[in-house]
Amino acid sequence: MNAFQTVAEFKAYRKSIIENHKKHPAKPCLVICGGTGGQASGSNDLIRIIKRRILEQNLQDKLALRITGCLGFCEMDPFIIVEPGYNLYPKLKMVDVSRIVDAAVKGEVVEELLYREPGSTVKRFTEQDIPFFQGQTRIVLGQNQHLDPIRISDYLKTGGYEALEKALEKPDGNWIVEEILKSRLRGRGGAGFLTGKKWELARNVNKGHTPKYIICNADEGDPGAYMDRSMLEGNPHAVIEGMIIASIAIGANNGIIYVRTEYPLAIKHASIALREARRLDLLGKNILGTGIDFDIEIFQGAGAFVCGEETALIKSIEGKMGEPRQRPPFPIQKGLFGHPTCINNVETLSNIPYIIKHGADEYLKIGTANNSGTKIFSLVGKIKNTGLVEVPLGTPISTVVYDIGGGPSGSAKIKAIQTGGPSGGCIPSSMFDLPIDYDSLAKVGSIMGSGGMIVMDQNTCMVDVAKYFMNFLKDESCGKCFTCRKGTQRLYEILEDITLGKGTPQHLILLEELAQTVKDTTMCGLGQTAANPVLSTLRYFRDEYERHINDKRCDAFVCKELTGAPCQAACPVDTEPWHYVALVEKGEYEEAYRVIRSANPFPSVSSRVCDRKCESRCNLGISGGEAVGIRAIKRFVTDRIDSSAYKPKLGRKKKQKVAVVGAGPAGLTAAHCLSLLGYGVTVFEAEDRPGGMLSCSLPSYRLPKNIVEKEIKTILNKNIKMEYGRALGKDLTIQDLRQKFSAIFLSIGAHESWPLNLENEDVEGVFPSIQFLKAFNMRGEELARGHVGVIGGGNSAVDAARVALRQKEVISVSLLYRRTREEMPAYEEEIDAALEEGVRIETLISPVKIHVRQEEIEAAIREGVELETLVTPIKIYSKEGRVVGIECIKNRLGEIDASGRRKPTPIPGSEFRLELDTLIVAIGEKPKSEFLAHMGLEIDKGGRIKINRKTLETSMKGVFAGGDLVTGPNTVIDAIAAGKKAAQSIDRFLQNKPLTIPATPKLPSVFIEPTAVDETAAQALRRVEPAVLPPSARIKNFREVTMALPEEQARAECRRCLRCDLAFTSEQTIGQPMAAATGGVQHD
User: Do residues 87 and 126 make contact, with C-beta atoms less than 8 angstroms apart?
Assistant: First the structure.
């Protein structure tokens, strides 16, 4: 017996459900995701606790529980939303649940458990306060939160099947087709064909003469995509309602939901929903007395990716091998069992009820002209907020990635996104202003696909990404087309060769040609887009391919055969951290020192001020743990072992002489390396002592002067001649040097500060940071006094602030930076130390005006101020022209800029003034190099010398340049690396050899027997941080702040090393001479 005989009866029943719901006073309700993702994160445990608590406390009449499908914010699972306040409690533990239950009953909020943005202390009291939800338009996905998917009454309460009512009241399908055509809904399965057009064609095929099928394609095979699964799990009735409306529109009698077997929860919920729909006479014979016959069955696919293609899907249902066939005839002409078949995606069908209920005109208000409505994306990868995101088509990628997704999950910047699944393309971050729509994505070489969106950061190798997807596609190819079957296989093989270090320039040519051939010659849509990952990465990330092929380097440190031990690959000077860490763990400290010193002439300096690139790439840290404290271990060795343990051997004396201009770390390193090769080197230095930035800018509490002096002394030898007080452009020219020397290396640094370009910047009391630091470090002058302001966020700014704080006449120091603390480029430990010492940091602030005493007094006189009452202005007036303060304006973070950071935007009306006695400007430095252009060298707009990056040769033959003069302000270790590279190039130049050396991967080659370590004990070890002087013991002096590790702690830290080198070495290398262990450098 049917539940309802007419549409009117069902309509009355549906309205009674809604009215009954409105009559009963709403009680607090706990909403929790019971979808696959929620269950995997532990929601079932929370559900059991909630149910038990409700029963134990007899709360059935006071509290409701709603178990839903996916709510979208998967990163925060398991979480609970408490209605009616919509308080969201993320990442809950079982012990938290009882507190939330009790608070919900009382109408209270457990504030400490509320959602906060990562890194923020601001509580978000409601769901709509959370940026993840604020940027979305959830017309489809939003229903999941308000219904239990296995209760049809919940769907009816939310207006479910109202659209079907409307369709059944006018069962002529023409108006439905017209409405869908008018809405301009495009298929959400990927192709983007107009749904209304497909329905129109399907309706007009063989009217009334043959069975027709409507198939819901839920074969979601893209890695990382789970939109369709979540819709079937969370709101199956929306899909069913869409299918019934579609059947009326095209005249179909049979419906099939094709879903892969590995979606058991989706199958379960869809099966229950179908049973409930039949119970209410919404499916079956003579639906609600209208004479319409339509029913739906579920077909479980085997999970073949190719069955997402509609003709392959049809063959699968027919019991044949799932492989595409030629079209035409199209499925709407000849489909399942030879009958007309209309195939729509899950999300497409889920949009139908909204359009029919609200009208096409309302739907067209969402999205853009040719891309109406919303699209659900599976946002996954290196992103803070993973989950399902529903946004209007036309939304910029940047909005999804940064505003909704929250930006990168770690410190690495976002590099690209991949859309459209394995057959999609990769889009670089520089194009994130691109609107997300079918046409825009196609123009840049990608596709919409079903909605997968994988975010990749700088730790992602794009060559490896292409290889991953080609591996997937070659395995999933049905094999029918030769070019797809063998072409994808060969593409994978070429990519594998490139990642193994076997690539050649010819590989790149072949790769591109073959990818284009696969695209042009395969039959089905999957085959035609299979080459997209290769073509798009070649288009936008060709430089990464070239680095793999020409330089044998994977800059993302992913390709193992090109990377070796990541700590070594990350080191600019090619030190082997794995090597000396293993030796320290064994107690072989002298050998460890030799390993360090053979690669780096400044081991003690580096152990204090290196920016620790090795640690940033430590596999222990990358995999979620804490990186090994490599720099601290190096410090332990260099403090313990005398430099005499390593005595480099001078090579045979050569006739050619080399001039090095600049005695900073780059110049001294080049001179040292060239001297070991037998060249006579003369170093010209403008100052009265060597060291460059080591002497003039780095404060002694970070880098003691005696360490610098001692280290420089060890690298000077009889082949090196020093000349001080000789400045290029003043005392000598390049032309002068070329007459006396066979080659020249320029390394004069970047010692000119960028100005603020504000009026009165040249008054007394305003200092560029370099001038301020140099005055103190080189001459002992204390320029700061009173209240000091420092503008900037880099190491130079923090150094200036901490040096100022130590000067006798200084009362306070404020550091002003225009971005947030997280974006300050200074080392984190230096920022922490500055805060401990009392430096006040103000972020999101920009200076707009500098005030001087003369202007203040004149303004006071004009305004009628009686000067005698203004004590400070009178005193300042007596010293006309000295800085007394700055006016600033507060900023807010706006759009993402080219650097991947949010651009500071001034807030109108937020201006304020700071009273200052000293202002230090530390917004960056540039080389003072205008005179070099007059000598014939090419320089860029920033004053940097233009060079060949591989050889460091300038536009002038025989003249090389490196360090900050080329890069702008950089790190000490990068300057040392430039010196080493320059020495190598100069040596080859003087021997008339090609300057470039064929690249080879630098892999570990020395086997060091690992010490037996208890794995449980090793896993329990935490990173050891060196002790530091307490602020009270260091504020007004320049004692070194950071101490060396004690021996026991240093060796314990070494035991944490994963020993990545062992993947490349074997016991056969035991007993190799130490020269091999130290990169071939001989020593006594």
Answer: yes
Tokens coding 610: 């290196």
pLDDT reported for residue 910: 79
Residue ranges of alpha helices (H) inside 452-601 are 462-476, 482-499, 505-521, 525-529, 532-540, 542-546, 560-563, 566-570, 577-586, 589-599
The pLDDT > 70 percentage for the chain reads 92
How would DSSP label each residue in 623-645? TTSPPP-HHHHHHHHHHHS-GGG
25 phi/psi in degrees, rounded to 5: -60, 135
Q: pLDDT confidence of 1070, banded at 50, 70, 90?
A: very low
Is the pLDDT score of 854 beyond 50?
no
Dump the DSSP string for 15-61: HHHHHHHHHSPP--EEEEE-SHHHHHHTHHHHHHHHHHHHHHTT-TT
* DSSP element (H, E) containing 169: helix 162-169
Distance CA 779, CA 796 (A): 18
**Rounded distance, CA 65 to CA 28, Å?**
9
Residue 56, classified by CB atoms within 10 Å of its CB into exposed (0-12), middle (13-18) or buried (19+), is exposed
Whether the CB-CB separation of 30 and 50 falls below 8 Å is answered with yes
243 close to 216: Cβ distance less than 8 angstroms? yes
Spatial separation of the C-alpha atoms in residues 297 and 302, rounded to whole Å: 16
The encoded tokens of residue 656 equal 């050619």
Q: For residue 843, what are the contacts with CB-CB under 8 A and spacing of at least 6?
A: 793, 817, 818, 819, 820, 821, 824
Q: What is the pLDDT of residue 478?
A: 86
> Environment class of residue 854 by beta-carbon count within 10 Å: exposed (0-12), middle (13-18) or buried (19+)?
middle
| pLDDT at residue 1076, as a whole number | 36
Q: Please write down the HEC assignment for all residues of 641-671.
A: CCHHHCCECCCCCCCCEEEEECCCHHHHHHH
Task: Give the Cα separation of 304 and 320 in Å (integer).
Answer: 13
> CA distances (Å), 488 to each of 303, 500, 994, in order?
20, 18, 38
DSSP assignments along 990-1054, one per residue: HTT--SS------------PPPP--HHHHHH--PPPPPB--GGGTTTS----BPPPPHHHHHHHH
CA atoms of 683 and 672, how far apart (whole Å): 10
How far apart CA 756 and CA 848 sit, in angstroms, is 9
Task: Say how far apart CA 347 and CA 662 lie, in whole Å.
Answer: 65
Which has the higher per-residue pLDDT, 886 or 218? 218
- pLDDT tens for 724-754 read 999 999 999 999 999 999 999 999 998 888 8
Report the relative pairing of strands 883-896 and 902-906 from DSSP bridges.
antiparallel
CB burial class (10 A; 0-12, 13-18, 19+) of residue 742? middle
Grouping H, G, I as helix, E, B as strand and the rest as coil, residue 142 is helix
DSSP 8-state secondary structure symbol assigned to residue 548: I
Phi, psi of 810 (to 5 degrees): -90, 135
Q: Are 292 and 299 in contact (CB under 8 A)?
A: no
Q: What does the pLDDT read at residue 903? A: 78
Q: What CA–CA distance (Å, rounded) separates 399 from 1059?
A: 41
Contacts of 908 (CB under 8 A, 6+ apart): none
- Of 442, 530, 434, whose CA–CA distance to 193 is shortest? 442
Q: Given pLDDT bands bounded at 50, 70 and 90, which one contains residue 869? A: very low
* Strand, coil or helix: 377: strand
Give the largest CA-CA distance in the chain.
108
In the predicted structure, residue 874 carries a pLDDT above the cut 60? no
CB 621 within 8 A of CB 606: no
* Cα–Cα distance list, 232 to 144, 279, 344, 363, 450 (Å): 10, 19, 14, 22, 15
Region of poorest pLDDT, from 121-125, 362-366, 872-876: 872-876
